[in-house]
Specification:
CATH class of the largest domain: Alpha Beta
Number of strands: 23
Number of domains: 3
Radius of gyration: 24 Å
Largest sheet: 7 strands, mixed
Helix content: 25-40%
CATH superfamily of the largest domain: P-loop containing nucleotide triphosphate hydrolases
Strand content: 25-35%
Shape: globular
Length: about 475
């Protein structure tokens, strides 16, 4: 283990890399010079707490840092041993595109900013590059839109299991809270699984729905349109995963692709995408760490915990346990206060739970000649409220139309439903108003207890089930 307290002097274009266990907390203070994390500058003299994190602190011109706490690993790189220059070059290219779009917009011409997609295999540094590009753009006053399409991460203010988009501004940048500190709630759609390959048809559907919603928002906002998109994709790049990447590129009208650490993927994308799409290959950072199954599971639990209790809620819980350290007590007071999640105990009749299933499992060869299957590829079906739901994460669906939540029966749905279509198909196109966790089901009393991020009535009684579970006792 590394020393409890240590001072580091970084040369220009060098980096300090920390790995902090989930059961430890490390405090970093910038003493002199300039330093940044994922494109966001540290404030001199301020204490930043990291728990269960892998952090790279980069300095372009040199700085002095102090670290306090137990690191699983900590080391310093020399000048030129990072991929910061490659990220800066990518940012410069995107910024040139934004300048061109801004000039065209000021002249009344129809033009949009860059829409870049970051792709690569698992543990290649996609999230790091996407966050850095967003940080650099926001520091210049741009307001790019971050699109998170890896449902395992939850890096866009929504919990794991969702695909989401949110605008990034200078005010929302944070060194230690990441994008969990976004002031405006992200636009999110519930996938309900950790990996796209678990339900590829549903993943394609929610990505398409998100792309349409993002396009509508950009069309109505000139500043966001000029700033463009940064799309972070999942690690599913082989076989059907490659086809999924092409679908994402088309859905979001991507005009630039950054490929990390995968020569064949770079070549395949250059061949498959139109010539108008710029495809560039970037090196994999030596600081990228391979994450094992245990780390991924604990990261998922922490992200869900932070959705309900606020960014850095895990770090706060560790700081609170160190009663004998006055300096950490002071840091705890300065850390953002936690959210106040609320428990909702509701009768069974007050909610409707659904899940999405694959439609037809047979093939058209079993049907009469010239007749195809009438079933939708995805079917939304009702789920009986029972103790099986306990610990499941559910999405609260936005009502898709007037009267959808009215009444205790589904007659208005059934009357409009086609015989071969689920009467609840409209829920596939509904964004998530928020998320809840089932903490108890009392069959005798006919009540279900939900943990939500805030008090008050649920925005809708339509709840969508996936395949993610979370227990509050598992903070990380």
């Amino acid at each position: 283990m590394a020393a409890t307290k240590q001072t580091w002097t970084l040369e220009g274009e060098s980096e300090l890399r920390l790995e902090v266990d989930f059961d430890a907390v490390v405090v970093v203070v910038l003493k002199q010079g300039l330093c940044e994390v994922l494109g966001v500058e540290l404030a001199a003299g301020r204490e930043y707490a990291f728990a269960g994190a892998k952090v790279a602190l980069y300095s372009w011109h040199g700085c002095q840092l102090e670290t306090r706490g137990e690191c699983a690993s900590v080391y310093q790189t020399g000048p030129g041993e990072t991929t910061a220059a490659a990220a800066l070059n990518a940012h410069s290219y995107l910024e040139t595109r934004r300048d061109e779009a801004s000039r065209a917009d000021s002249c009344g011409r129809d033009c949009r900013g860059p829409r870049v997609m970051v792709v690569g295999p698992s543990d290649s540094g996609k999230s790091t590059l996407a966050a850095t590009l967003l940080g650099y753009a926001a520091r210049l006053g741009r307001e790019p839109t971050f699109v998170e399409l890896d449902p395992a991460l939850g890096d866009c203010g929504a919990p794991p299991g969702a695909v989401a988009a949110a605008r990034v501004t200078r005010e929302t940048l944070s060194v230690d809270e990441g994008f969990g500190s976004l002031d405006c709630a992200p636009l999110s759609y519930w996938f309900g699984y950790e990996a796209p390959r678990e339900h590829p048809d549903l993943y394609a559907r929610v990505v398409d729905e998100l792309a349409v919603a993002v396009a509508e928002k950009l069309d109505g906002d000139r500043s966001a349109n000029v700033a463009g998109l940064v799309v972070a994709t999942s690690s599913w790049v082989d076989g059907d995963g490659f086809a999924s990447l092409l679908r994402v590129a088309s859905a979001f009208a991507v005009d630039a692709v950054l490929v990390l650490a995968h020569d064949r993927l770079f070549a395949d994308l250059r061949q498959a995408l139109p010539p108008s799409v710029a495809v560039a290959k970037l090196p994999r950072s030596g600081g990228v760490v391979q994450r094992d199954v245990v780390h991924r599971r604990r990261a998922k639990h922490r992200k869900i915990h932070e959705y309900f209790y606020g960014p850095q809620s895990h770090a706060r819980s560790l700081l609170a346990k160190k009663d004998d350290d006055a300096a950490l007590d002071k840091l705890l007071e300065a850390t953002a206060p936690p959210l106040a999640p609320a428990t909702h105990e509701l009768p069974f009749r007050a909610v409707r739970v659904f899940k999405v299933l694959a439609g037809s499992t047979g093939d058209d060869s079993m049907l009469p000649v010239g007749q195809g299957s009438m079933l939708e590829p995805l079917q939304v079906v009702a789920v009986t409220v029972s103790p099986v739901l306990v610990h499941n994460v559910l999405a609260v669906c936005h009502p898709a139309r007037d009267g959808d939540d009215a009444g205790d029966d589904d007659e208005h749905d059934d009357a409009a439903a086609d015989a071969a279509t689920s009467p609840h198909q409209h829920l596939l196109g509904c964004a998530a108003a928020g998320f809840v966790v089932v903490t108890n089901v009392n069959v005798e009393a006919q009540t279900i207890t939900l943990l939500g991020p805030c008090s008050g009535d649920l925005p809708s009684r339509n709840l969508l089930l996936g395949k993610l579970e979370w227990m509050e006792s598992n903070i990380a």
